[in-house]
Design a protein that fits this description.
The protein contains seven helices and nine strands, in the order H-E-E-E-E-H-H-E-E-H-E-H-E-H-E-H. It is an alpha/beta fold and about 270 residues long. Bound molecules: hypoxanthine.
């Protein structure tokens, strides 16, 4: 696996002609529009990258965008890989491994999620303060000791200094923020009412089907992580969420998320 990761990274390095991204960004469902705020220098379709899985979900484009945000070098994944699509965890997290070898020093992750905290409204942005993993751990298997330890620490998994920066920027820009714990399940079903209550009882504020594997792998490699959830539905209300709602709400709230990401990157 490590050889495959290295091969992929050197293939990309050749294509991007010495460009070294400082920030890796993963754009969640409905949040792909942030890509337009990147002054793109190189765009690689996942199809064309050896070793990269290819996204199957509607609304996920499937390309790596290398470029500038406020003059800072970034690489954005427009489209991510979900466990529910049938990928192995090693595939879901493969791009994060590759981005590390390409040089990223920060990982920004975003996702659409279902609010469990009853003070949340549809369209809110939630700064992820911590997570609960209800998926298989992506580090199960032989440890890649060259990349990180066998038993990685998960304290400060979502970097406190980055969260504080977000709070300051949001106050300055008048962006409303919520804070909370993201519960990552496998999906693809949305939760039953009893499961939303269970997620709430164990300390969750929002439910989703992504992010946790990528964050665990990033922390394995000691990359500081900043994570934002767009609340696209409220799990404990009677209304039924569907994938189209999630995409639509994601796109709407994505504007503020884009502003927050841009300002954060500018001030790193
Ligand atoms: N549950 C899980 N994943 C989600 C949800 C949800 O309610 N909304 C958006 N992604």
């Amino acid at each position: 696996m490590l050889e495959e990761i290295k091969k992929c990274a050197s293939f990309i390095q050749e294509r991007i002609e010495g460009f070294v991204p400082e920030v890796g960004i993963i754009l969640g469902t409905g949040l792909g529009a942030f890509a337009e705020q990147i002054e793109a220098k190189y765009i690689l379709d996942y199809h064309d990258i050896p070793g990269f899985p290819v996204s199957t979900v509607e609304g996920h484009k499937g390309r790596l965008i290398f470029g500038l945000v406020e003059g800072r070098k970034v690489v954005a994944m427009q489209g991510r890989f979900h466990y529910y699509e049938g990928y192995a965890m090693s595939q879901v997290t493969f791009p994060v491994r590759v981005m590390k070898l390409l040089g990223i020093q920060y990982l920004f992750v975003s996702n659409a999620s279902g609010g469990i905290n009853t003070s949340f409204s549809v369209g809110d942005l939630m700064i992820i303060t911590d997570h609960i993993n209800l998926m298989p751990n992506p580090l199960i298997g032989k440890n890649m000791a060259e990349l990180g330890p066998r038993f990685p620490d998960m304290h400060n998994c979502y970097d406190k200094a980055l969260r504080d920066k977000a709070t300051a920027i949001a106050a300055e820009r008048g962006i409303k923020l919520q804070y909370g714990v993201y519960v990552g399940g496998t999906g693809p079903t949305f939760e039953t009412q009893a499961e939303y209550r269970y997620f709430k009882a164990i300390g969750g504020d929002a439910a989703g089907m992504s992010t946790v594997p990528e964050v665990i792998v990033a922390r394995h490699m000691s990359i500081p992580v900043f994570g934002v959830s767009v609340i696209t539905n409220c799990g404990l209300s009677d209304e039924i969420g569907d994938h189209e709602d999630v995409q639509r709400q994601g796109a709407k709230a994505g504007k503020n998320m884009g502003l927050l990401f841009t300002e954060m990157i500018k001030n790193l």
